[in-house]
């Protein structure tokens, strides 16, 4: 009986392969955001930061629910689905980037969007994304 419990614990301590893939995709998108900042493609910094957060949250949803997450770009929905309680400053930022996702992805007026998201703003989004991602990576949901 003790051996069975031990084996059961080991099985559930391993991270799902699809969770690991979500994490790798998140890191790939974050690196792309850094390259976009360096090259001055500032709207894509916001877009890639959003995608990076989305994929890390989907890693959490996968681990918590043991299912493949629903196709959505709504970060707030993913936080709820993963049953995460983030610090207030992280929640506020996620609300902000969630709102910025559509206007940076599909701007009605390119010149206005470029004025709304200049280099210092894009850099701040990247820094805040890195902070939230670090918190998410260290969360017990992803501790194997």
Report what the structure shows.
With 144 residues, the chain is mostly helical. It has a single domain, classed as Four Helix Bundle (Hemerythrin (Met), subunit A) (Up-down Bundle), CATH 1.20.120. Helix content is 77%, strand content 0%. Helix 2 runs antiparallel to helix 7 and helix 5 (88-105) packs across helix 7 (119-138). The longest helix is centred in the middle third of the chain and has 24 residues, at 42-65. It is elongated.
Task: Estimate nothing, just give the exact number of structural domains.
Answer: 1
Class from secondary-structure proportions? mainly alpha
| Beta-strand content | under 5%
Which residue ranges are poorly predicted, with pLDDT under 50 across at least 5 consecutive positions? 1-12
- CATH superfamily annotation: Nucleotidyltransferases  domain 2
Shape from CA axes?
elongated
Helix content: over 70%
SSE string, helix = H, strand = E? HHHHHHH
Q: Helix segment count?
A: 7
CATH class: Mainly Alpha
Number of strands: 0
What is the mean pLDDT? 91
Report, as a whole number of angstroms, the end-to-end distance.
Answer: 23 Å
The biggest beta sheet, please?
A: none
What is the CATH-assigned architecture? Answer: Up-down Bundle
Task: Quote the CATH topology.
Answer: Four Helix Bundle (Hemerythrin (Met), subunit A)
Radius of gyration: 17 Å
């Amino acid at each position: 009986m003790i051996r069975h419990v031990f084996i059961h614990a080991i099985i559930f301590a391993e991270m799902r392969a699809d969770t690991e893939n979500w994490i790798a995709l998140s890191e790939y998108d974050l690196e792309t955001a850094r390259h976009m900042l360096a090259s001055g493609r500032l709207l894509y910094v916001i877009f890639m930061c959003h995608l990076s957060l989305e994929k890390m949250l989907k890693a959490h949803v996968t681990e918590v629910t043991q299912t493949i997450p629903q196709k959505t770009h709504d970060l707030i929905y993913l936080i709820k689905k993963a049953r995460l309680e983030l610090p207030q400053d992280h929640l506020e930022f996620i609300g902000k980037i969630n709102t910025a996702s559509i206007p940076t992805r599909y701007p009605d007026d390119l010149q206005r969007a470029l004025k709304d998201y200049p280099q210092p703003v894009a850099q701040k989004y990247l820094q805040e994304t890195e902070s939230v991602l670090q918190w998410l990576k260290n969360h017990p949901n992803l501790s194997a």
